[in-house]
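dumping the sequnces here before i forget
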Amino acid sequence: GENVEQHPSTLSVQEGDSAVIKCTYSDSASNYFPWYKQELGKRPQLIIDIRSNVGEKKDQRIAVTLNKTAKHFSLHITETQPEDSAVYFCAASMGRMRFGAGTRLTVKP
Amino acid sequence: NAGVTQTPKFQVLKTGQSMTLQCAQDMNHEYMSWYRQDPGMGLRLIHYSVGAGITDQGEVPNGYNVSRSTTEDFPLRLLSAAPSQTSVYFCASSYSSGLADSYEQYFGPGTRLTVT
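..and the predicted 3d for all of it:
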C-alpha cells in the first residue's frame, strides 16, 4: 500500500522567513496530493492541493511542487506570519488517502 | 450546511466497554472515512465507505466496526474498548467520482476518547 514520509517533524522559523516541508510517497499510482493545516485542538483543514498532471500550484504565500519521477512533493510558505504556526500534514491518494506524520511549524515573532 | 458533525466531543470508557461514535454529513458526499490521530503518527485510516451499503478496511481496522445504511451517516463502533484505542477520532467526507479518484476531505470536529 501507499506510504508517505514527511520531513522535518518540527520546524522553527523567524517571522518573514520561508518554510519548506517535504514529503515522499511510494505508490506511483497516487494522483492527488493535498496539504492540511491543523491548529491546536481543531480539525485538519485543506490549504492547498495538487494533482498528478500538474507540477506546481500557488495560492498567495503558499505553493506546492510535485516531482512525479522522484515521487516527492513539497509545501512552500513564504513571508511566514505567527498565525502560520500549526501542524501541517501532507497526504497522497488514489481513492484511499494516506497521511504523513506531520510537521509542527513555529513562527517566531 | 452544518458540514460534518460528530458526537460526542469527549468520552471516557472503561476497558471492555463498547460504544458508538456518531458521524453525519449534509453535503451529499459519497465517500466517508474514519481516522484516528495519535501524537507523532499523523492520521491513520480505520475504515472507509464509497457509498451507502459499501464499507472497507483501512490501515488500522482491528477493534472497530462500521456500517453505512444511508449516505448521511457513518457510525464507528468500538466493540470492546482497550487503552490502546485512546486517541482523537476524526470522521471525514468528500465528493467521489470513483474509487480511483480523490477530492478534498472535509473533517468533523473530532471525538477525544480515553479508555482507562
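Residues 25 and 71 of chain A are 6 Å apart (CA to CA).
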